[in-house]
Amino acid sequence: MSEIEFFLNNWPNLTLMAKHQGKVIGCIISKVEPHKHARIRGYIGMLAVDNEYRGRGIAKELISQSVDAMIDAYRCDEIILETEVVNKAALRLYENFGFLRVKRLFRYYLNKHDAFRLILPVTEKSSVRSTFLPPLEDAPESKY
Amino acid sequence: MDVGQQLSRLNIRDYEDITSEFFAITSAIEYGSIVKSKQFKLLEGTHALEVLNPKLDTALLEPGILHPVVETLDQAAWVMVRLLGSVCAWLENNSLSVSVLSCYFVEQLIQRKPVTGELVERCVAPFVKGVISFVSSVLKLGVAGVIYEEEDLNTQTMDLDFSVCDGEQTVLELRNAVTWVRSQPESRPQQLCVDLLSLVEHSLHICEITQVSVELYETSPQSVSSVSFADSALETLARLAEPETVAFAAALPEVACFSANVQKTLNNRSPPKPLAHSDFASSLENFTKLFTDFQFMLNVLAVRDSVELYEFLNLFMTRRQFTTDPDEILGNHVVVRALMQLFLIRDDRSILGSRRWNISTLLMDVFSKISFQNSRLQSSTDDELRNGLEKMIIQIEPAFYNFLTCISQNPSRQRQFVNKELIIWDSIQVEAENFELESHAKLHDTFANSELPVMPVSSFVYYLKLTKMAELLFKSIELCLFKDCRELHLGYWLLANQLDYLVQHIKRLLDINQLRQTQLAAFSKKIKKAKGDKKAKLREEYEIKKQSLPQLQKMELYFNMLLTKYQIHKSLAENRATVLRMLGKQGFMDLPKLCKASEETLYNLQFKSFQSIGVPQLPSFKEYKEMMKQEKWLASQLSPEANASYQKGVLKQKSDEINANIRRLEALVAKMQFPQFISERLIQDTKLLKKANVACLLTFSQALKVADLPKSHVAVVFEKYDHHLYYPNIKVAAK
Asked: Which residue from A minimizes the CA distance to B44?
């Protein structure tokens, strides 16, 4: 089973597709889980847009809808993702939504380059260290 | 390719065919649905092997056609050059299966299988055994828990035992191989083979350093005779790196002895991956870095006291190699990073294997020099106070140990280590203050003509905490975590704010130092006045305490050096913030267009690490906005020209102050009489600070030139190459 299938199976409402004349031209997959029993964390696992359809705001729309869904349906405290330091286009795209670089990850993708962990803060909880947050009440444990 | 074709490629003979049974059972599963056994988690399914999926099933790999015949020295040299490239690919965090183990000769020799042919036996095999032995020793460093698996080094060995080649025997075989190759008719590949064999032999000695025990502060790198191999290795590498040799190596005839076969035949936990190897020039760079960094590491043997050791460890940690790739941050070589920690701190907690120095005694020495020397708490015999102090030291030790381990981390991890250390120092500070306020009644250790308690423990803890707070911001800048003008402004603004606290606190440490020196000077008067037993006791006390005078004087100089250094950084950060604010008028400080978070939430997340810190408290977002409002108001009171002229004046004045402080810093570094390897690096740092100071004024002029242009017509670029780690050049130009 691929990671995509894993995401799709567990958070079907967070897998969004962009279609043109019946053809899938873009996709974003995300998940939401409790993080360290202290906050609800959304995670964007993958975003892809068909080469032919790039530069038309499809990725922006997919991110926007996915972020809104994670906030509205799951009450996320923060949304995170990782992207390669050299992937300037992806960085620009996410950072335009307010995502901040909170950590640099050394050779994250098992090659020469590092990655940035980006976080979009949603609630106050995202700016407090987990150690200092009260445990989540009625938080669903990670089922997977 | 259909299933039948794929199965035929698997060459299955000894297994029972269950295909039809499998499909019969799985036909009950509805198409598109996922079924899950309770025995494993769904996430684990993502790591499972998908049989017959060419991207995941290594059994489907096409077998590599090998013809490992080496008949000429040219071919032998090619094998060695290529294998050296495989070793470097492994050191660059590729797996052994795609790098070193992709070599037929490695695969054979590590499994004690024979290799044939005179050239193979006499020249290639010793080289391969040398490589296996080198990998074995580096693997030991990798699994020692000081660096990170799959981040710094991949230690998956496919269940093969790399320790099959005994070190001493391998060295002997390498030397015999050199002798044999030298006995062959003189030729170009002959010298290349000799150099490559020698290089591997030198590499085998690197990890031996962890076996060397010395007395801290009493040795020098030269006195450790076994380290001269590094000089020889660098000479060999310089010879190999000559352009003609590199070009010659690139034209050598290939031998079909590298393949992905081990991924298919041996215990492999990864999906199929292409082979990885560095080209010859990159391999030589990698090994040159290894030996150069190793030699720098050995300077730890030449430090003479804990101040020098502390400075050296900080220099080692922040040591970087300039690279033209703006997205790359090159710290010390991974082998040297792991070695450094294992060489510095031994299993018995001793430092360099010293009989006298261990983590605790080193900590006490640093503590003593910073603020504890000649304090009343130090000489107190009160059991309660001594127990209290002991408890405090026990709490401080993990934070100090964190620093000692941080130095070996990669640049990204270093920041995470500092971040972790901050919480520890913050909680210790609270405890330390409580302990010292409670013990004040008993000790009454106060500043002259004052009721203000000296509080040596809290002063030490607060000093380290403040340096770590600043370090966290410095490292955030270095790692490019502040992506644009708005965020970089925030970073420099908070940095200046925190450095102000640090500067004030160093002044306090200087006051403590002065107090102890004054107290010593006052002894002679006291002794003169005293009579009988009291006089003798005082004289005795003086004789003990006066031994600390040279140390106190050296620390006074050191604190002055630190004070000047941090004043420079504070002013530089302030100037940068001013220039960035100026760009704000054109919208460079605005939030991104589609921003889904408020500025306040972003501010709080940006400074998450400082949110829980008690003292100094993070300025609130409201306070930040108030400062920005005041700056705006100030600018609005003047015409744009007058405001520009005023800002320029402020920047220029501060810039002159920075230059004066840099000159002062250079003089203080000279006075400290550090060993050359420390003073050189400190002076090099001041040169880059000077450059950062000039660059800031230049940015201001550039910003002025484009002040009337809209944002879309202006480009702001951060340049890192050849600039100070913490002060990238901010280049402003019309598009």
From this structure: A144
